[in-house]
């Protein structure tokens, strides 16, 4: 990383700069702060939750001390290398004074403070991990952008006790009333995406019943609760409020160009901003060409059905088989597993890889992302199927790391799941090609001079014309199509 990770902010203060969170990303959106000014933090403790173009991640602090300043508000965009948080170092004298003040505080005040702190901590860690804590002799193991965890560092968030205020509080305040009801069950949420979705839909998580393991609240639970809440709100809406079908309310914004009401304004940020920038760059820099072919997938569908009948749990998906055929094709036509790079003197060169990291397009609640199966060329169809399922689940749950969503050398796009027959996809910059797979449908097909109904799929290859000519692209696409039509012969050689 070119920029410094820290900056001195004055005597006893250090400022942590937003680091490069992977793949040279230049900015991140601040989702929320995990600490507040005045909090005491430990080394490697997460202090902020940020959303990059690739994933939502927690950013740990490399410093211990007291939070002096938070640089930025939730929802704002912070550039890499600019201040994120300023930490005031805690001296040994400050720590001893804090301990002494805490010992002098009245029991009632300590009980009130502990109750509030416990409620805060319970909400933050609800459902995130088992209550067991790492040993004090070893670090927590969290490592991000070059920072390790020193031994003997305790994790966890603590609040500074305002001991003086507590000791001078009236007697009626220092004595906490006895608990008369059982403590409430902590909200079971792990994914920050689920929490953010709940905030966007104004759905209280405490009222949502989780359908995941052990009552874990999933995205579908929040979406279902949001639909229910919206329908109830529509039923009880005021008669003075008009719907879109009834006309635009008099207080709504009107677009000057069309004269229509403006229903919403959505900032282009996060994944949507990254996708937009990548697509523009791909169209601007890559002279692309597209070739396509229809393939008879009847034998492949039959093969997969036979495997599923014999072993329902581990039969590879059709996409896993096609991925295996693609990898075999790239071994024969390596020109498509490349990328164009500048040489620094104004020239260009073609970088060819020893292996394949196979990317695949996955539609998620955050938008379209492309997880990459690293070392895919070494995997069988069963292994590819496992990785496709694992990475898809991580992406859709918002748990995929930047490393999971970067590093691809060739992309496979299965748009057939959306009921689409064909598409000229945009290359995932800076790769050189992308293969699209349409839906498999029954179509009339000539077999040995006789018309028959067969399972047909359209395969579309979009490629960078700088790295190869049409003969190479056509040869690769024909190889994959032949493998789809006669899978047994190809799989026998893999």
From TrEMBL:
UniProt enzyme class: transferase
Top-rank taxon: Bacteria
Cofactor dependency: (R)-lipoate
GO terms, molecular function: acetyltransferase activity; lipoic acid binding
Domain Peripheral subunit-binding (PSBD) intervals: 189-226
Pfam families for the chain: 2-oxoacid_dh, Biotin_lipoyl, E3_binding
KW Phosphoprotein (keyword) present: no
Biased composition (Polar residues): 227-249
N-terminal signal peptide: none
Residue span, Lipoyl-binding domain: 13-88
SUPFAM superfamilies in the record: CoA-dependent acyltransferases (SSF52777), Peripheral subunit-binding domain of 2-oxo acid dehydrogenase complex (SSF47005), Single hybrid motif (SSF51230)
Gene Ontology cellular-component annotations: cytoplasm
Biased composition (Basic and acidic residues): 92-102, 118-127
Region (Disordered): 92-184, 227-250
InterPro entries in alphabetical order: 2-oxoA_DH_lipoyl-BS, 2-oxoacid_DH_actylTfrase, 2-oxoacid_DH_E2_comp, Biotin_lipoyl, CAT-like_dom_sf, E3-bd_dom_sf, PSBD, Single_hybrid_motif
Key word Secreted present: no
Ranges annotated as biased composition (Low complexity): 128-152, 164-183
Family: Belongs to the 2-oxoacid dehydrogenase family.
PANTHER family linked: DIHYDROLIPOAMIDE ACETYLTRANSFERASE COMPONENT OF PYRUVATE DEHYDROGENASE COMPLEX, LIPOAMIDE ACYLTRANSFERASE COMPONENT OF BRANCHED-CHAIN ALPHA-KETO ACID DEHYDROGENASE COMPLEX, MITOCHONDRIAL
Official protein name in the record: Dihydrolipoamide acetyltransferase component of pyruvate dehydrogenase complex
Lineage: Bacteria, Bacillati, Actinomycetota, Actinomycetes, Micrococcales
């Amino acid at each position: 990383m070119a920029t410094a990770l820290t900056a001195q902010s004055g005597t006893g203060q250090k400022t942590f700069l937003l680091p490069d969170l992977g793949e040279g990303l230049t900015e991140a959106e601040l989702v929320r702060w995990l600490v507040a000014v005045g909090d005491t933090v430990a080394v490697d403790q997460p202090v902020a939750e940020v959303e990059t173009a690739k994933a939502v991640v927690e950013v740990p602090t490399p410093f211990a001390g007291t939070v002096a300043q938070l640089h930025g508000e939730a929802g704002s965009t912070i550039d890499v290398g600019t201040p994120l948080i300023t930490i005031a170092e805690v001296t040994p004298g400050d720590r001893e004074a804090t301990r002494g003040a805490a010992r002098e505080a009245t029991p009632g005040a300590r009980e009130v403070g502990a109750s509030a702190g416990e409620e805060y901590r319970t909400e933050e860690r609800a459902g995130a991990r088992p209550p067991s804590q790492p040993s004090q002799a070893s670090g927590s193991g969290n490592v991000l952008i070059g920072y390790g965890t020193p031994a003997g560092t305790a994790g966890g968030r603590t609040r500074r006790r305002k001991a003086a205020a507590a000791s001078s509080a009236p007697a009626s305040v220092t004595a906490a009333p006895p608990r008369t009801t059982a403590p409430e069950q902590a909200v079971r949420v792990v994914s920050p995406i689920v929490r953010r979705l709940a905030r966007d839909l104004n759905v209280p998580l405490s009222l949502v019943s989780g359908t995941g393991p052990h009552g874990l609240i999933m995205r579908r639970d929040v979406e279902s609760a949001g639909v229910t809440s919206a329908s109830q709100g529509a039923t009880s809406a005021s008669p003075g409020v008009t719907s879109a079908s009834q006309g635009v309310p008099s207080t709504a914004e009107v677009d000057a160009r069309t004269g229509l009401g403006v229903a919403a304004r959505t900032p282009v940020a996060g994944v949507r901003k990254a996708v937009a920038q990548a697509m523009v760059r791909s169209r601007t820099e890559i002279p692309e060409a597209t070739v396509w072919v229809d393939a008879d997938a009847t034998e492949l569908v039959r093969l997969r059905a036979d495997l599923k009948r014999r072993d329902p749990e581990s039969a590879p998906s059709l996409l896993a088989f096609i991925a295996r055929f693609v990898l075999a094709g790239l071994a024969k036509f390596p020109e498509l597993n490349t990328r164009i790079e500048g040489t620094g003197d104004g020239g260009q060169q073609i970088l060819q890889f020893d292996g394949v990291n196979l990317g695949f397009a996955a539609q998620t609640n955050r938008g379209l992302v492309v997880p990459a199966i690293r070392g895919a060329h070494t995997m069988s169809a069963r292994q590819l199927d496992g990785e496709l399922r694992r990475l898809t689940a991580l992406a859709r749950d918002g748990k995929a790391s930047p490393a999971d969503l970067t590093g691809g050398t060739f992309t496979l796009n299965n748009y057939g799941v959306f009921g689409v027959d064909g598409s000229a996809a945009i290359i995932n910059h800076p790769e050189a090609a992308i293969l699209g797979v349409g839906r498999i449908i029954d179509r009339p097909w000539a077999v040995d001079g006789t018309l028959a109904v067969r399972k047909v799929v359209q395969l579309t290859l979009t490629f960078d014309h700088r790295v190869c000519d049409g003969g190479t692209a056509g040869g690769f696409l024909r190889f994959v199509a032949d493998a789809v039509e006669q899978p047994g012969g190809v799989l026998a050689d893999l």
